[in-house]
Design goal:
The protein has about 150 residues and is of the alpha/beta class. It has one domain: Rossmann fold. The chain is built from six helices and ten strands. Strand 7 and strand 8 form a beta hairpin. It is globular and about 35 Å long. The protein starts with a helix and ends with a strand. This is Transmembrane protein.
Amino acid sequence: MLKAGFLYNFARFGSWDQPLDNLKQFTVCSPDKYFIDVANSALKNRTIKNLPLHNKLITLDDTSIRGCNIVFITSNTFAKWQTANIATVKNIMVIGESDSFIEGGGHIRFFLSAGKVRFEIAPKQLKDAGITMSSKVLRLARVVQR
């Protein structure tokens, strides 16, 4: 539930180069059904940039991810993500929690430090995907260069 809250805030403080104005909803996707169930509960009736927030269970293929604004790759789905080659997709923030996630092309990674959930961000990889993150969030992150 905590990670769903983080994703919500990443969405609030992220800026997509491609305008979101023509969308009907802001979509957070994951191939992990358990995470989607938790996100549906934690983020019920929320909006992002005046768009209703929708959580969607996807398969990791080009067609499925096209309608996503954020994709969350849990440790259970990391192996599938590595073979799906979705890191090159534009205008989708890719967030994960596995050790080599940033090195594998991800944008933001959760990790534990002193028993607390923290995150690291690769701003250049985000920028290459057409997304920038607010300096407010970057100050809270461990910034990594790949």
